[in-house]
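Human: I'm a chemist; would you kindly supply sequence and structure tokens for a protein?

Assistant:
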Amino acid sequence: MKTTDPKKRQLLDSLKGGLIVSCQTQKDEPIYTPDMSVKMAECAKWGGAVAIRANIPEQIKKIKANVDLPVIGLWKIWNDDTDVFITPTLEACQAVWDAGAEIIALDCTAQINHEGKPARDLLPIVKKAIPEAIIFADVSNYDEARWAVDHGADIVGPTLYGYTEATKNIEDPNFREFARICRDFKDEAYVIMEGHIYTPEDAMKVIFLGAHAVVVGSAITRPHYITKRFTDLLTGYQNNWRVAERSAH
């Protein structure tokens, strides 16, 4: 069942049919400056975005201080022994919440984390520890979405489709699978599309399929990846820009 908390419902309903822009940058990227994520968020608001998705407590805090939009917060933390990196611990979730994010995104896949446990086991722990937070379950397939919804995720989205071992070679969104998630879970949670959306036409397509809202990141805010997509094609796919996008920072 969807949350009955009136404050959460008000925020979540305000996202309906809208564009959420992922405003992230890492220190090893060519576009990085201390205020770049804020500038991205300001541009997103100017362009009509309904919310921001942001990484790292420091950047979340700066965005919240300058841009009056809801923030989906996460903290990418990489460890060599796992592919789980999106807000992988309770401490990371608490830091994202303390930075001002209204929504916490975390890995809710079946992947094994740094502690040797399924990443999704963190979901009920965070819900109990930070009950005021709206939880965005990042999953990679239908079964993980089902588990996340059953365990209380407020939002579910296929953010990690293409980032798990089983899906790592995926280039395009799976519209049929996403439509199935919308059909089966839309009455129990808010279904938001994230991942592999590069055009306004595809964004509109997922709204038509049942998405509550759509998140777009690299296609809007990361010109080095946009350039690489062009040059990869122009050189006959000698390189794959997604390798850089998936890399640890």
